[in-house]
Amino acid sequence: MPHTSPFGTWASPITLDRLVENAVGLSFPMATGRHVYWTEARPEEGGRNALVRTAIVDGGRGKDFDIGSGKELGTEPEEVIPPGFSARSTVYEYGGLCAAVWPDPSNGDVVCFSNFSDQRVYKVVPGEAPVPITPPPPSPRAWRYAGPVFTRDGGHLIVVRERHGDPDVPSGVENDVVVLPTDGADVSSVLLSGRDFYSHLALSPDGRRLCWVTWDHPRMPWDGTELWEGELDIERGRVIDARRVAGGPSESVTQPKYAPDGTLHYVSDRTGWWNLYAVSPDGTEDRALAPMEAELGVPDFVVGTSSYALMRDGGVLATWRQSGLSYVGLLPRGAGTFHQLDTGLTYVSELRGAHDGSAAVAVVGSGSQPPSVVRFALGADSGSRPTIEVLRRSRDDVVDPGHLSTAEPIDFPVEGGNVAHALYYAPTNRDFRAPEGELPPLIVNVHGGPTSAAVPVLNYATQFWTSRGFALVDVNYGGSSGYGRAYRERLRGSWGIVDLHDCVAAARHLVSVGRADGRRLLIHGGSAGGYTALCAAAFSDAFAAAASYYGIADLVAFAEKTHKFESHYTDSLLGPWPEAADVYRSRSPVRHMEALRTPLIVFQGLEDAIVPPEQAEMMVAALRANGVPHAYVAYEGEQHGFRKAENVRRTAEAELYFYGRILGFSPADDLEPVEIV
Predict the structure, then answer these.
(1) What average pLDDT does the structure give for the chain?
(2) pTM for the complete prediction?
(3) Picking from 50-59, 88-97, 253-262, which range would have the lowest pLDDT averaged per residue?
(4) From its phi and psi, is residue 649 left (phi > 0), alpha (psi between -120 and 50) or beta?
(5) Looking at domain 3-14+418-663, which of 3.30.420.10, 3.40.50.1820, 3.60.40.10, 3.40.50.12780 is its CATH number?
(6) What is the Cα–Cα distance from 135 to 143, expressed in whole angstroms?
(7) What is the tens place of the pLDDT at every residue in 76-91?
(8) Could you report the per-residue pLDDT of 641-655, keeping only the tens digit for each?
(9) Which CATH superfamily is domain 30-310 in?
(10) Which of the four, 25, 97, 287, 661, has the lowest number of CB atoms within 10 Å?
């Protein structure tokens, strides 16, 4: 029989160590005909991003995959780059696709990747030592590269470049597109320049046409971008006869790709939804392939996102989001609608096709399955159902389902007659039950972005709380992606208002239906989510305590000092800077501390270039001056997000200890105290 114990005091099998032990973050899968590559963020290696691959073979390794008809295939993954190297780009600070593979039919694959420590591009043949093909930068990480694409013969690499410290550029940062010889010769050529940002480079199958996405301040890529195409003259290092294919100030175009016959595909939200389009090779026809009220695109915070794969027979395999869930479907050549596949997946990202169009790869998961790299193996034509082959799981030690809480999508009313969305996780632990009549404390989780979205996939960071007796709600407040452009634009001019109101509304809705204790409401979030948590502490009395991970405290300082990519982001969220300076001041939590009474714990990376540590330190100083109970935990060597195992553990430990002290309960864990002043 389950033990009776108050919510928050339950003993959980998801220990602090288990948060990071034998766990990796999976991203950017790529496929050739013979191998699948991906990057692994490894907390236990100091946050290093390993680049690994597996060979595709018949047969399996004896492990079942219980999503749909999946089965586990492939050899044991092998490392492509040795220890001491980390595959990670910092272009636009958030980085993105940092590697490319050229399948050499005679000598095996050739890989080029950006190395985190110096941001140089290296070439490596698996089994050999990496060799740099870009010169040393004038200062550490001053020259950066992302979104690489090999030319057809493998002799050159086309890549987005970012140069810091340029005295002739107002921001000190210049972005362009360059072509690099892969033999290491120091003779790069600038193919494209003059625009603020570039992304999504793609080459036609014959290697003669290059396409790219570009945009300028003050727009963000989900506001308005342009898709361009031109003839590539690789010998002279130039693009000629460039033309704009699609896009504009109020149309977000993304993810261009060429089909085997040369047809250019792309994703656009011109109808209010990111849908798939195709342009004929002669440019005379531009048509929607499968219109629907669903999102094939995602906000391009990083370079090289991908939501679909083009098959060699002309079909398309794609993923889209609808009502908070991910789906996968096939669009056979000539069909007008996607055939949705019954996979059991609720989370699908980074779906890319193999070089030869024979398969696709992605990172997928569900409420009971952690993120995994999978390969969609297609039959003779794209009208047949693919087989799902698991190549790597982010963790193999999934706890018993009796300790796991599954996401429940909920809708709830918010101000202005609107409806907002969230994922609710009930406290779940088969070994415990709460005393009769007790309601659980509720954690409101605020995602970052703020244009990102909460997704329903097994995440130990969530289960850590629910298995201890907390309820948790992941709020997709107005401004979140996945619900169409109109929903995204609810946040225009209203950041700090709509997001906060929707988070408070989610909490109060759950209290009203008897699923949370209104006296024990908590809120936490990172980055933009940290800003909303700080707003909750400063502008609302709904919460008993709050936690901010690298959150923005002062919008004025953020506008004056943040990095190039986001330096005009607040123009749409708040108003143009400095004309709307009064709005920035009025919505900055640190400037309204006189009425603050909400206890707060603040976490910060001391190398964060997106939200510098001064932001956290200003908030802590104001809390101290106002006599509000608070704690401050800062980490050397961490940037925007915590990657080291010891810091991931310490963050969860300190936050749980803080909540126990503030709410007056004793967690079952043996916790190292955090200083509360």
Answers:
(1) 93
(2) 0.94
(3) 50-59
(4) alpha
(5) 3.40.50.1820
(6) 9
(7) 889 999 999 999 999 9
(8) 999 999 999 999 999
(9) TolB, C-terminal domain (2.120.10.30)
(10) 287
